[in-house]
Amino acid sequence: MSSNGLVLNAQDVHKRFGRLEVLKGVSLEVSRGEVVCVIGPSGSGKTTFIRCINHLEKIDGGRIEVNGHLIGYRERNGKLIEDTESSIARQRAEIGMVFQRFNLFPHKTALENVIEAPVHVRGVPKQQATREGEALLARVGLAEKRNVYPGKLSGGQQQRVAIARALAMKPTLLLFDEATSALDPEMIGEVLDVMKGLATDFQTTMIVVTHEMGFAREAANRVVMMDDGRIIEEGVPEHFFREPREERTKQFLSKILI
Amino acid sequence: MLAAIDWHILWQRIFHPDHVFLLALWRTIYISVLAQILGVILGLIAALMRMSRIAPLRWLSGLYVLVFRGTPVIVQIFFVYFGANLLFGFTLIPNSVNVGLFSIDGAAFAGITALGINEGAYMREIIRAGIDAVDKGQMEAARSLGMTYRQAMRRIVLPQATRFIVPPLGNEFNNMMKTSSLVFFIGVTELFGDAEIRYSTTFKPVEYFLAVAFWYLVLTSVWSLIQAQIERKLAASERGDELSFRERVFEAWAPVAAWGRGGAR
A-side interface with B, Cβ within 8 Å? Predict the structure, then answer.
């Protein structure tokens, strides 16, 4: 199944919180090396959708495959039953995630944050993990901050460490959940630059939930517009931003692009 | 009124404690410490059970707190010490228990067990609150990196919960040192018991109980200092000092090490 080159194959994903149906059948396919930006108003289900991709949220219908492997569930006699904890954990190790609020481990230094999972999940020898971790911190421009605790880093620096931490597991898919929304305006640029570098220099497969239209325009291969739990429009950025098809998209873009 | 106090006894009890007294003091210390350690272990287990996906484990944890927080410690101490023998006709509590460095007599062992079980019920709530106080994003971040629940709890959540748990834990231990006096009622001669025995042979209650109150005050005061020190260390790591724990320990010992080198020369 992974032979068709799809990293993500999500079909008809449904999710409800109590009575509220947040995802009403979302389908999205992402190929290797693609950068997909997901945009849309708040409450449209963007964040919930990417949280379903690494099973931080259980889905109520449809299916999600990453590299051809069903996520979070196991198929038995045509029915989906939830997978065991350890195999879900194994799948999550392949999918990196960067959070809006960074979620760095405050009791560990920048470098310890980065090598934590390679050492304790993958069993990489500490020396090797440290070498690779230092290289990753250098890549996000924070080599000299290796022994600094998150509390002493700016928001932008914390988010760059968080990106290095996600990369340390060599994920085949990287998810960004509004990674710049909690940052002071002057720090957004440094994080976006790192993300652009990943997209252009390293061909990392990325799904980016964002409000940064500049980033979408420059770095995305495809832009996806969500509204009210559905994907209502998608396209390459050049077309998408110049001549959106849907009225709702035009409306949204006119508000966000002043 | 004050003239009625035999100041000599008070002076002796405070400044020239005899070895019988010192043994009693030592009993109070080890009973409190061991009971508190048992309480933390049981509290942690019960807190994790309470958060379990398996319903019967949650119920058991709830029942534990209901029973042991809802009945008097002294009753629990009596039950542990006499209960098994009376109910089932066998001796649950051996005559003496070896804990490696020293041995504890059976009554003290029963006391430690009962105090520890009782304490666990209170510690469960403290530990649960500490775990709840850690940002939910920490668990999510850990699991998004491929950690299992157990790994994430042990390596990421519990270390951070510690700083919320330590201040109330210090209070609990302060309480424990005083509550441990109840084990006198199953025949353990600890601090309070020692005072009780002296008073019953001399009929000088004021002197002996004033002296014992003083010694409890010494214990709790020393503990307050230790607790403040621990909390200061935790606050330092919270501020994100750029020294690792190892480096901080090294720094603390550096003057000693320097002195050692100087002496060698």
Answer: 54, 56, 85-86, 89-90, 92-97, 99, 101, 103-107, 109, 116-117, 120-122, 147-152, 162, 165-166, 169
Predicted confidence at residue B265, as pLDDT, reads 37
* Angle ∠(A143,A149,A154) on CA atoms, nearest 5: 75
Predicted confidence at residue A98, as pLDDT, reads: 97
Contact A110, A143 (CB under 8 A): no
DSSP A142: -
Q: What is the DSSP letter of A79?
A: E
- Which residue type is seen at A249? T
Residue ranges of E strands in B102-166 = 103-105
C-beta atoms surrounding A1 within 10 Å: 10
Contact yes or no for A202/A190 (Cβ under 8 A):
no
Supply the pTM of this predicted model: 0.83
Angle at alpha carbon of residue A219, lines to A217 and A224, rounded to 5° = 60
Q: Which pLDDT value is given to residue B1?
A: 53
Give per-residue pLDDT as tens, B13-35.
888 888 999 999 999 999 999 99
- Comparing CB atoms, the residue among A93, A106, A152 nearest residue B242 is A152
User: What pLDDT does A156 receive?
Assistant: 94
DSSP code, position A83: P
